[in-house]
Amino acid sequence: MKRKRFSIEQIVAVLRQAELGMPVADVIRQVGISEQTFYRWKKQYAGMQSDQVRELKQLQEENARLKKLVADQALDIQVLKEIGAKNVWSAPR
């Protein structure tokens, strides 16, 4: 089955339809998603406007990028500590 990508606006529109009283079964059939996907979206984006969801996604991406940067720096520090512990320059001649 072909996997679709939905924009933030589309996700919010789907959730809004369900909030306005349209049965969930009709909403998911119309959009072509599973019930599990609908409830995952609802859990994640319930009550948000599309601009708030977009901001949340940007913050999550930035957070992931910063976590990767911290992990890289921690690895660099560990390597430098190991090199310093060996201290090859002060070895006896």
From TrEMBL:
GO terms for biological process: DNA transposition. SUPFAM superfamilies: Homeodomain-like. Signal peptide: none annotated. One of its GO terms (molecular function) is transposase activity. Residues 49-76 form a coiled coil. The keyword Coiled coil applies. Keywords: Coiled coil. PANTHER family: LOW CALCIUM RESPONSE LOCUS PROTEIN S, TRANSPOSASE. This is Transposase.
